[in-house]
Amino acid sequence: MSGLQVYVEGIGLWSPQLADFAALKAWLAGEPVTAPPARPPAAVLPPNERRRAPESVLLAVEAAGQAVAMSGQEARELPCVFSSAFGDQHISDYMCATLASAPVELSPTRFHNSVHNAPAGYWTIATGCHATSSAITAGHASFGAGLLEAATLAATEQRPVLLVCSDIAGHGPLGEMTGTRQAFGIALVLAPTATARSIACLELDLVPHAIDALRPAPATGAWYEGNPIAASAWPLMQNLATGEGDCTLAAAETLALRVAVETPA
């Protein structure tokens, strides 16, 4: 693959430190930012669903809602790709512990929310979206894999596509294994051609690469290093904030995406 182009029309972002993409740009510029609420607002969901939904759903829906609002697109018309490195680690930890100690006490509701495509289901139901949706994972390469999937879909279908990548903090033994210490979600609305709404142009090239060289570096204290999606997306986030630059993102075990960010013509 060479020279696949897509255009960013909307960007959503949420972490315990930054409430949206505007906050990220301010933080990078050294300006003060207001801390977001303790839980992602996920205003797209009806109130009852917001109360019942797990954190993993709230996080993905919040990032998605921001990106779609910025793009001006209709959420119900957007095919969507949801990507997560580890899914809902809180529910997975609960299910493993319950199955090991008292399996008959397993909550049907929490089991229902444990599936990897739960955020996609909540999103499409809340927005009335009947377009295609998918949920993928590729470990530490999940952001690059999601970007490749969404960009390819936008190009082949010749229509805008919503990409949502997110992970919550790990819990219990699973959290110790994944090393995910905090939540982070990012969403992009990608279009196949430039429009008046285009924020940036992404030039994508698929290249061979050993994933070990692209794994997030050991934590040094920066907020984005506590989450595999944030750490993987960090180079591209900076380039989107400044409007230019290039970076390489792991997309599979031996493949990577070289991504160049340019200002739309």
* Average pLDDT level: 91
The CATH architecture term of the domain at 10-194 is 3-Layer(aba) Sandwich
Q: Give the beta-strand count.
A: 8
Question: What is the top-level CATH class of the domain at 10-194?
Answer: Alpha Beta
Provide the spatial order of strands within the biggest beta sheet.
3-2-4-5-1-6-8-7
Broad shape: globular
Rg over CA atoms, rounded to whole Å, is 18 Å
Secondary structure tally, helices? 9
Explained architecture:
This protein is of the alpha+beta class. It has a domain at 10-194: Thiolase/Chalcone synthase (Peroxisomal Thiolase, Chain A, domain 1, 3-Layer(aba) Sandwich). It is 37% helix and 22% strand. The protein has 9 helices and 8 strands. The chain has helices spanning 21-28, 47-52, 55-71, 89-101, 108-112, 118-127, 142-157, 172-178, 228-242; strands at 4-14, 80-83, 133-136, 161-167, 184-191, 200-208, 245-250, 255-262. Strand 7 (245-250) and strand 8 (255-262) form a beta hairpin. Helix 3 crosses helix 6 and helix 4 crosses helix 8 (172-178). The mean pLDDT is 91.
